[in-house]
């Protein structure tokens, strides 16, 4: 399979192996993975060296056009939230799609096949509770991780969405660091 590139950044190598950047750094520091430093001090890894490490340690490597593809669906009726999350997550290497209501979320789940959904609870047409219930009750989609978000973060809403199968609940306004950590934890 021809790849787009043979030289990888630490982040790209981490995504390909489904590990954190810190893990790749530990491999480099321990001498398990060869790297070269650029004039600016950034490390680059040759794809062949990463594949050698994988073979020696019997690790699965996830390559799709040169990188692991993790798909995140953002479901929120607020265009500002969608824009910020789309920009942030795309920069981190995720493939991102969005839906503006629960009905559209159902269609996008079938078409886009996300690994994770960031799901607002209160939207027009079909709310996030019903979206979560349907996704988690269908054997074809039950594996999809769901982070529920809402500006109405009372105990009742939190417990209700977790009972429907959401993996995490986070209050709005969304803290980008917390959402990154939640995504990282759930997609390991």
From TrEMBL:
PROSITE patterns tied to this protein: RESPONSE_REGULATORY (PS50110)
GO molecular function: DNA binding
One GO biological process term: phosphorelay signal transduction system
Keyword terms, alphabetized: Phosphoprotein
Domain Response regulatory: residue ranges: 71-187
Residue numbers carrying 4-aspartylphosphate: 120
NCBIfam families assigned: excise
Annotated protein name in UniProt: Response regulator receiver protein
């Amino acid at each position: 399979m021809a790849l787009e590139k043979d030289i990888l950044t630490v982040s790209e190598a981490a995504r390909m192996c489904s590990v954190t950047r810190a893990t790749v750094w530990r491999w480099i520091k321990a001498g398990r993975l060869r790297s070269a430093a650029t004039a600016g001090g950034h490390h680059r890894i040759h794809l062949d060296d990463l594949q050698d490490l994988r073979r020696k340690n019997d690790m699965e490597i996830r390559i799709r056009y040169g990188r692991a593809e993790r798909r995140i669906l953002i479901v929120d009726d607020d265009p500002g939230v969608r824009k910020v999350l789309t920009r942030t997550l795309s920069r981190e290497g995720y493939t991102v799609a969005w839906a503006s209501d629960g009905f559209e979320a159902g269609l996008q789940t079938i078409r886009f096949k996300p690994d994770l959904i960031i799901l607002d609870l209160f939207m027009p047409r079909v709310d996030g509770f019903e979206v979560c219930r349907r996704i988690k009750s269908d054997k074809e989609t039950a594996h999809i991780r769901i982070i529920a978000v809402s500006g109405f973060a009372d105990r009742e809403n939190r417990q209700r969405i977790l009972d429907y199968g959401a993996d995490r609940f986070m209050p709005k306004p969304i803290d980008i660091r917390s959402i990154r950590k939640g995504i990282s934890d759930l997609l390991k």
